[in-house]
Amino acid sequence: xxxxxxxxxxxxxxxxxxxxxxxxxxxxxxxxxxxxxxxxxxxxxxxxxxxxxxxxxxxxxxxxxxxxxxxxxxxxxxxxxxxxxxxxxxxxxxxxxxxxxxxxxxxxxxxxxxxxxxxxxxxxxxxxxxxxxxxxxxxxxxxxxxxxxxxxxxxxxxxxxxxxxxxxxxxxxxxxxxxxxxxxxxxxxxxxxxxxxxxxxxxxxxxxxxxxxxxxxxxxxxxxxxxxxxxxxxxxxxxxxxxxxxxxxxxxxxxxxxxxxxxxxxxxxxxxxxxxxxxxxxxxxxxxxxxxxx
Length: 294
Prior knowledge:
This protein has 294 residues and is of the alpha+beta class.
């Protein structure tokens, strides 16, 4: 007679397959359940806190023995999630660009004088030639601001001229010269203010002397407005100065520094300033001088 082992839970006995009735086996049809130190079967309320006692708990159901070995439970294989996002591209570090040396010699830029400025200077020459520093009655007056001297002959050239090198400023009722700032509210008192600087008389207009002879005598250093913008790899620097003397313009630069020097206002003012650059090609640079009002 063949004997096999019963695979019902809680039984495990060896039985004769030809002698296997409906009440031959007592077993647990449920599943073992462990919770809070209790060990029990889900099919009945029998439990034990000791594992050995739990294994010998008598079955709660009667039936025939089971000769079939249960199949091993196959654990589901974990799904491999595929990330649709492409991997990041490696960052390629570029070597730093070496800054050109600031000790490189400055190269002078050749100015290009446009016709608009030439016309403006020509009109100033004509104006200076027509007046020649004389008043309507033929008397020659000093053209320095604040000086009221009259030319009487060669001896007048040896006199000391007291004048204002600045410009008149009218602001909130006050009138004063930018060079000394002695303020007054009366216009006549403003005109009578003695000059704050001594020098030589100017019997001809500075505009005439500067534009005709291309010479400037002791211009006053001052600042004028400038701005810049960058577009499509080009940098444009604009300096706004009235009546520039083209012969006085001196612009020099290398790749990292720019120096600008020019005389303007008909020879009365001097503008000088340096600018730091960042890798500019001076070989491709141009210098234009023109008038915005032709």
